[in-house]
Design brief:
Blueprint: E1 3-6, H1 10-21, E2 28-31, H2 34-43, E3 49-53, H3 61-70, E4 79-83, H4 88-97, E5 101-104, H5 109-123, H6 131-138, H7 142-165, H8 172-189, H9 192-203, H10 211-231, H11 236-241
Parallel strand pairs: 1-2, 1-3, 3-4, 4-5
Helix pairs in contact: 3-4, 7-8, 7-10, 8-9, 9-10
């Protein structure tokens, strides 16, 4: 799941999920309450983006935003508030708490999609480095960067294969060594979201069977950057969102 969509109203939730799907940034996970979304965040890889309604029973969008921003490992996830046109004070509070923008419902598809596009383009630097900057930083040509991506993909595949083949739990030494190496790879390649997933994973107590989901999420972050290079675009979102 790349985008978390939270709204207690099923029709609004479906409409919001459909808007997000049009951005072509991966899979969408719908949640009917802030509490359900929070429970998911506590035991699953963090998403690239969170879109959350303001008014929900149990835990409001503002309360959920506050919880997210108070957690170090979640605080840099771009957070989009879904609100009505009359809730300007709530929007201002959300921006002060760290929301990167808002969209208004009931949705006018083109307007809401355009606003989401702008928000995501502005926030993309929190997700990944643009490939041209990676090329300049590493001092290599595009074809060489693709070789780096392929090497990192093999590293991920090897780790996933080890998890699948190991009859019992990996030793802490082997596991942490693998995670440290992959996190260094993410930082070298500008995969900021992937690096944060691995950083969070190192602090968690999870069954070994759950590691696959986290490493798969890192692989999705890698594939988005590989697509950016294949597209010849400085940023995946520049090519996909216009």
């Amino acid at each position: 799941m790349n985008v978390m969509v939270i709204d207690d109203d099923p029709v609004s939730r479906m409409a919001l999920a459909d808007l997000v799907v049009q951005l072509e940034i991966g899979s969408t996970g719908p949640f009917e309450s802030g509490l359900a979304a929070w429970k998911h965040l506590e035991s699953n890889p963090p998403p690239l983006l969170i879109c959350c309604d303001v008014r929900m029973p149990g835990m409001s969008g503002i309360e959920f935003l506050r919880f997210v921003k108070e957690r170090k490992e979640l605080a840099r996830i771009p957070f989009v508030l879904v609100t009505s046109a009359s809730e300007r004070e709530i929007v201002q509070e959300a921006i002060q708490l760290g929301a990167c923008g808002y969209i208004v419902k009931p949705f006018v598809a083109f307007e809401a999609r355009t606003r989401l596009q702008g928000i995501l383009r502005s926030a993309w630097g929190e997700i990944a480095e643009d490939p041209s900057s990676t090329l300049r930083r590493l001092g290599i040509p595009p074809q060489k960067l693709n070789a780096y991506y392929s090497a990192f993909k093999r590293q991920l595949d090897d780790a996933l294969g080890l998890l699948a083949e190991q009859p019992g739990p990996l030793s802490e030494y082997i596991l942490m060594g693998r995670l440290d190496a992959m996190q260094t790879g993410c930082l070298t390649l500008g995969l900021w979201h992937g690096a944060r997933i691995l950083d969070w994973l190192k602090t968690l107590t999870r069954p070994q069977s759950a590691l696959k989901d986290y490493l798969t999420a890192v692989g999705e972050s890698l594939e988005m950057q590989r697509q950016a290079v294949r597209d010849g675009s400085w940023r995946h979102q520049e090519s996909k969102l216009h």
